[in-house]
Amino acid sequence: MPKKKDPAPGQLTFESLLDEASRHPGKLIKLPFDPRSFGGELLAILSHGLYTNPFDCIREYCQNSIDANCSEITLKITGNSVFVHDDGDGMSLEQLVQARLFGVSPKRISQFVGFRGIGIYSGFDLCQRLRITTTSRGDTKGYTMIFEFAAMKSKLAQDRKSSDTASKTPLMELLSENTSFGVTTTTYPADAHFTTVELQSIEDFHIDYLSDRNAMRRYLLQSLPIDFDKAFEHRDEINSALRESIPGYHAVTVTLQSDGLPDETVTKEAILGLRSPIFRAIRTDKGTRVAFLWACLNQSRGKIDKDNKAPNSIEDPSDSAGLVYKIKGFTIGGRQKLRGMFARKPQLYIWYTGEVYVLDDNVVPNAERNDFETNQAKTQLEIALLRQMEELETHAEDIQAKGVADERVDRYVAELENIENAISSVGHVDPFTTYSRLSEILVDLNRQKQKASPGPKDVAAKLVARVKRLQTELRKESENPTPADKKRTTSTKQRGAAKGVKPGSTEKDIPLKTIAQILTESNWDMDSPCRGLVDIIEPSVREVLTPGSSIYRQFVNDFEARILAQTEGDSE
Amino acid sequence: MPFEDTASKAAIRQLYDLPEIARLCERLNRSLAYFGLTGPEIRDLIDWKEYLCAATSVESPGRTKEAKSRAEDLMGQLAANAMFQKIPNFELLRADVERVLLDGVDSHGTAPQMNDGAPAQTMKLSYDLVNLDFVSGICYRNTTGNPTRLDAIRRLFDRQAGHGFILLITVTVRDNLGEEPDTYLQQLGARYPHVLNNPAYQHALECGDGEREYKLKPVISTLIQEYAETRQFAVECRPPIFYVGHGKARMLHFVFLCEPSGTGLRAFSEQQAQDLLGQPLLRVEEGHFTIDPTWVARGVDLASPPLGFLSDSAKEKF
Q1: Which of A146, A184, A263 lies nearest to residue B88, judging by beta carbons?
Q2: Is the pLDDT of residue B163 over 90?
Q3: Which of A148, A183, A461, A490 is deepest in the core (most CB within 10 A)?
């Protein structure tokens, strides 16, 4: 039978408590705790299973680096150690000693997210020994603190085998006996400041897991406020807006180092061909700012995809299409999560890339970090965000309509040239068909003029005048036809050249669009059933109407006009 | 502690080695890949980092439990310093450097980063700068009687086959070779009789154990030349430097410029045995260089051809 330990001096015994309570029946007595009240097992309980994968543990140390105002973090994997080095403020000896304490961090939780209460002991489960080296500005000494986790774990394992409560190692004793500090042999320049955390003797299995560069890169991009690549043209503008609007925001770069592999700097990769960023503060009806978003629309009308890929990029830009929630550097959920907020034209959602930084502390991520916990704050955020997303959607629609209008005006320039050439040649126009077509063009031009960009708008105005003139000519021609020999002065060659047709070819040789092309160019949502239908209709039309025939040409032009009218109707 | 710096050691790194490194960098028109014994303070890497694109540092992990724990701390400090100094593509191998060169991998099975991807035994390396800054002598026989360090240097030339590099070797004059350097010098004289009249040769033979640097200077330079030439490297050896290091350790520092000859049989360096013997011994004290008095007595000065390569900044320190 293990010997019962004597109570420490000043410690209240069960007997004295009972005596006190007996002397004052009915009175509740404060029940004091002493340092022996907390078994060392508490550390194991707090840290065990805290992280579902080793990246989470590394992230905790990175977060602490960010909280220390660093701009660069180096993650080095060498042998069985992982180093997290930052160029943050570093720690004085006093701060280093403070850092080993539990749950007494002076950090404001709303502003800082590292070391979630368990502090420096985050790596207790992952490694056998933790070593911190640090120096701060104005101090040429470096300090090091070492935690012998292996010895602590071994002691706790021994304790578990014993059934005697009194022989369990108190937490304070466990920590005191296995924590040491010293001054480094290296002296540093007075302006040097950094902290290096080394997690030593990690199991091979975990080292292999952490050594997966692609997985590590994606994890970090998902979990930390990583800076944009310097090649991203809107980097400074977005960073500056985020710094201004998001308390405590600052972006960092992370360099990955592993033995035998070249260094890699992790940044949010540059996406080329984006319009200037849009910034919006998201406010509730009461005017409370609950989030802040930035979004960039693709310069070309279409989704963000490989065409936006910057040289030297590793990731596919389409992975960055859409907007994503961020909360204190963490990504919450994926980019598809907000797609539903583009209710009218969800296909326009992936024309954007951007982030929504949640500022309301009452909006709390769930444990899986794929959504927020359901509460009133979340609902208010979503309602407020929806309004801004509708605005983004409308903006994209305007850009789409403008682009379509500009293209249409361009096309009419060419078509009118063809009609003019045809009119000036005998036998090339059917006055009625041509007049009708001109009427259609006129109607459409007047419509596109409203939507087109300034340049094409002017062109459209001029085209309207040209169409009217041509219609007048056709009317006159039908009333008073010109002798055929006068018209034949224009050679076929000249006509061909005017149309942009190769010498020797005819108008019939100009390829007509397919139904699929027309739909795609109009940004029709070509989902699977739609594509299947087109695949049936297309050959049927070709079979019945014979490609190259005037009726086929007429069908294609009519179909295109109807689709465009429908698309515009949608956006209006 | 063996890795503490001295003014003499710093002067050698900055005024003697650095200009060679800069010249090689300029000649190759690119930064250099480093392999060597940096020590936890990585002073060599700090001094040379502007010329480096990659660095592989080797540190012994220790054998006893206590030594292992101490080594882990040193390596932690080493890696922290490398990250603080932003040494590019820095790699830390855990093993005795001899084992890395002989086996091709460290105790974790990690190969030096500048390898050709071949299996460890046949792996070739392509480092531009190899700094073997030993804290003991060139030759300590292991328990089986093999001089592991010399085996490793031979293997280094095998592994670097076809890739020119600067080899820096620093050793203490202590070893367990006993009388072997004298025998070596005598046999050298027998093979190359023209060295017998060289006053440096005679002096090396005559001096006692308290002046062992005079013996080891010709032994090491001719030995390394031999190793290199039979592995198709022509070698140019700079005048060796003697200095007193930390803890009054008597040290010798060598710089070998190794160029692959492209031949299949062996290379022949321009420097002959008598050239190596005749090279002046330099001394550094408190950061100031001097020519060893015995050479000064023989009329060697800064204008002498073997010292023509010295940079102006180095000459100013004479």
Answers
A1: A263
A2: yes
A3: A148
